Amino acid sequence: MKIMLIGRTGAGKTTLKQRILNREVKYHKTQMIDYDENIIDTPGEYIENKGYYRALNVVSMDADVIIFIQSSTDEDTLFPPNFSNMFLGKKIVGVITKGDLQGNLNRARNFLQNAGVENIIEITPEKKSIEELREILH
């Protein structure tokens, strides 16, 4: 199963990828689309610039699951209403990151729901939440 990660710069896409793959977490800025095992990590600029939406759509053809990543510390979202409709036929999962940093989990959940995501999980530093995500993905 191939997974595609979408979210703004700094939302935690690369960290989530590393945790899913059981790797040491090392921060680095994703500069271009990164294919790593079964995960497609997209740069934040692809959601931050509407001109790249077409690229997201094309790349999504290689994915079975699209994960929208929303940080709980962000006061706004870049996911337009019903953004999930752009990825017809794909399983869409929402992931809320940085819940341990005194973010607003309800706000982040509302942002993802407005984007058309029904299945949402909060990722915390505990390994349990990553295991829950793995179960949802399979």
From TrEMBL:
Keywords: Nucleotide-binding. Pfam families: PduV-EutP. GO terms for molecular function: ATP binding. It comes from the Bacteria. InterPro entries: EutP_PduV, P-loop_NTPase. Belongs to the EutP/PduV family. This is Ethanolamine utilization protein EutP. It comes from Cetobacterium ceti. The lineage of its organism: Bacteria, Fusobacteriati, Fusobacteriota, Fusobacteriia, Fusobacteriales.
